[in-house]
Amino acid sequence: MSLAEALLSRAQANTSALADRGSASSAGASTGGLAAFLARAGSSHTNAATVTLADKGVRTRPPVQIASFHPERTLPPANYASQATTQLVRSVRMLLSLSSQAGPNAGAVRPPLQQLYSTTHTLVTHSSAEALADLYDTVKIEIERAAGSFAAALHSSGSTNETLASSITWLNQLSSVWSDWCESLALVRDVLLPLDRSFFSTGAAAASVRPESDGSEQRRLPIWDLGLDIFAHRFLKDATLSGMILSRIAAAVDGERGQTIPYRDLHTSLADMFRQLKAEEMLDQAIVSAANVFYQAESTASMADLSPTQYVDYADRRINEEQHRSQWVLLTDGGRAENVAAARKQLVAQHADKILAGLPDLVSCKQLDGLAKIYQLVHSISRLSDLRKAFAEYIKIHGAAIVNDRERDDDMIERLLEFKSSIDTIVSSGFKRDGEFVNAQKDSFEVFVNKRENKPAELVAKFLDAKLRSGNKTMTDQELEHNLDEALILFRYTHAKDMFEEFYKRHFAKRLLLNRSASSDAERSMLLKLKAECGPEFTAKLETMIKDVDVSKDLMDEYERFAVKQRKDEDSPMDDFDLSVSVLTQAHWPTYPNIEVSLPAELAAAAERFEAFYQKRNSGRRLHWQHSLGTLSITTQFGKAGVKELHVSTFQAIVLMLFNKLESGQKLSYNDIRTQTGLKDEELKRTLQSLACGQIPTRVLRKLPQGKDVNDDDEFTFNDNFKNERHRIRINQIQMKETAEEQKSTEQRVFLDRELILQAAAVRVLKAKKTIKHSELITEVVDQIKSRFTVDVAEIKKVFEILIEKEYMERVEGQRGMYRYLA
């Protein structure tokens, strides 16, 4: 009969006693005794005994709880602790070595875990603290022995000359070792759970530290943490084995970088090992160090094989790959950041100068993606200032090449606007409209635009003139406004704004007088832009010019009424043409050369009548006729083409009217034309070229002999074979190229105006300050005129000397560098 059956038989024989002392029995079962232990931990054996007794005919009762009436009589045998401890330790050793190929018990059958748990529980219940401490130390030794066996087996399986494939095999073995260790350690932890509870329960906190013989204290860990700590000590704190592990992991990561092997799944297991062993930084540092070495070698080779633009694509791709790889290879945020920084250092920082050298090619080819990449790469290493300098230098060099190309001055502004448009796109898309790059662009444009101080300002004025003359004939209103705005930006960069004003005023005057403006709204819009940009003083003369034209229209209405009345009073016939005269205020309009010409009788008579009317209306004023600015619309009869309406200049009309007196086919020599018109050779040749040597549909005269140039011995005849499908034909005058003397004269006129402006600015400052230092006066003068032009300090000093001579100011005696205003 088993011990359980004997106890059950005795319990049935004393039923009444059990009933009287039921509560005491319950208490006894929960507190101690082997019977109580068996009732709790060996319920399966008790149930089996009950079934056996029932089969023998013993009458069964409702479930009975077995209790010990005399606990001292049911204690385990005296040698139970020693035997149970030995068996428990042996079982722990077997559990730790079941999956280990190196263990002596490899392949053995696993001992019953419930029995081991019960044994541990019994020992914990009936053993002293010293005995339990010894049991803990013995288990610790077994765990250390097992970990050592695993480590030795893994170490022996490695070799010094590892290939990538063998490294992966070895790491797979390490992953298996770690998996087996965790599985075995989990079983040991579950079996020894009562031991853990005895040390680490709330009431046993003081027992977690045991005094040693030398007086020191040793930290005691739960079984699971103890197993991890020992594994970490054996595998990761051993210099040789940890070196093997980390070097092979680094090699595997490098293989994955080179897309040689798939490694991510294996690394997940190994990363979990380092994470549970609290060694995340160790793994991260090894991978970061390997990244430094890997990318140092690869970037050096790539830089030698690739062009700078190709290398930018390569570096950007590699850094993006490393950022994604870091998310699963590295275990800490700090490690991930260091790994990407290491790749960035080797790929970008070490080759930054060569990367920046590729900027001109990217800008020239307008590779926005490449520029965005180079911006990101350089920004990541905090060297945007170098990129900005290289970008600014590119703008200055290529912009100066356009400005200094004197042979292509005619299309300088178009090329500058195209260049600016490409730079705008690069700054906006490639450099994310970085404010520093926007400022660098502005500064660079200002530098190269003023390489030729006056020419860009002059050409901007001519460009605006061309756009305002063609206007919405060749583009929409929105496109015209865009062109005006872009040209105005170039105007902002120029220092010689007074030079721009001079040329713009000349072209503006011709557009007004010749009615060449395509849109009056565009003209007024441009004036508003200039006024907002430079102030009302800048556009005052231009606004006065518009006012003169408007007043002239009212004046001509008055003249028409006067002419009608005069013809009625004198009973004179009406003129065969309509007269329109613009009376201009000379001080506000550009000066034009006075070209003498002999007007036809009817034109001369009309001019005299208007002058008489004007003198009568405005006594004391004198008119100066500018026939070079006049235009006529004349009706002409051609033999084959029929009647055409020609829009020509006054000089062209005078020449054409000479042929009214000739028979068909009759010729006029160059000398005859010069004598009858009174024009100088230069002006006459330009006029005849436009009538006889221009485009074929505009050749209303024929030159004999044919040719592009007009010579003194040439002859001209009316072109009866003229052909042109249009009824109204505009014959443009051949533009006279500006000579060096005329250019110099214009510049001298501007320079003279500058001197007067400087004098006026200095006097204004002196009048306000009364006394002022030399340096302060220079600063004040520069501030006042900087919106119109720039000037050297030497020029300002000359102005001061002139003002001293004119007695507008004087030097203060005894105070060096001090001036006083003289009223």
From TrEMBL:
<dbReference type="GO" id="GO:0031625">
    <property type="term" value="F:ubiquitin protein ligase binding"/>
</dbReference>
<dbReference type="InterPro" id="IPR036317">
    <property type="entry name" value="Cullin_homology_sf"/>
</dbReference>
<dbReference type="InterPro" id="IPR001373">
    <property type="entry name" value="Cullin_N"/>
</dbReference>
<comment type="similarity">
    <text>Belongs to the cullin family.</text>
</comment>
<dbReference type="InterPro" id="IPR059120">
    <property type="entry name" value="Cullin-like_AB"/>
</dbReference>
<feature type="domain" description="Cullin family profile">
    <location>
        <begin position="455"/>
        <end position="692"/>
    </location>
</feature>
<keyword id="KW-1017">Isopeptide bond</keyword>
<dbReference type="InterPro" id="IPR016158">
    <property type="entry name" value="Cullin_homology"/>
</dbReference>
<dbReference type="InterPro" id="IPR036390">
    <property type="entry name" value="WH_DNA-bd_sf"/>
</dbReference>
<dbReference type="InterPro" id="IPR016159">
    <property type="entry name" value="Cullin_repeat-like_dom_sf"/>
</dbReference>
<dbReference type="GO" id="GO:0006511">
    <property type="term" value="P:ubiquitin-dependent protein catabolic process"/>
</dbReference>
<dbReference type="InterPro" id="IPR036388">
    <property type="entry name" value="WH-like_DNA-bd_sf"/>
</dbReference>
<dbReference type="InterPro" id="IPR045093">
    <property type="entry name" value="Cullin"/>
</dbReference>
<protein>
    <recommendedName>
        <fullName>Cullin family profile domain-containing protein</fullName>
    </recommendedName>
</protein>
<dbReference type="InterPro" id="IPR019559">
    <property type="entry name" value="Cullin_neddylation_domain"/>
</dbReference>
<dbReference type="Pfam" id="PF26557">
    <property type="entry name" value="Cullin_AB"/>
</dbReference>
<keyword id="KW-0832">Ubl conjugation</keyword>
<dbReference type="Pfam" id="PF10557">
    <property type="entry name" value="Cullin_Nedd8"/>
</dbReference>
<dbReference type="Pfam" id="PF00888">
    <property type="entry name" value="Cullin"/>
</dbReference>
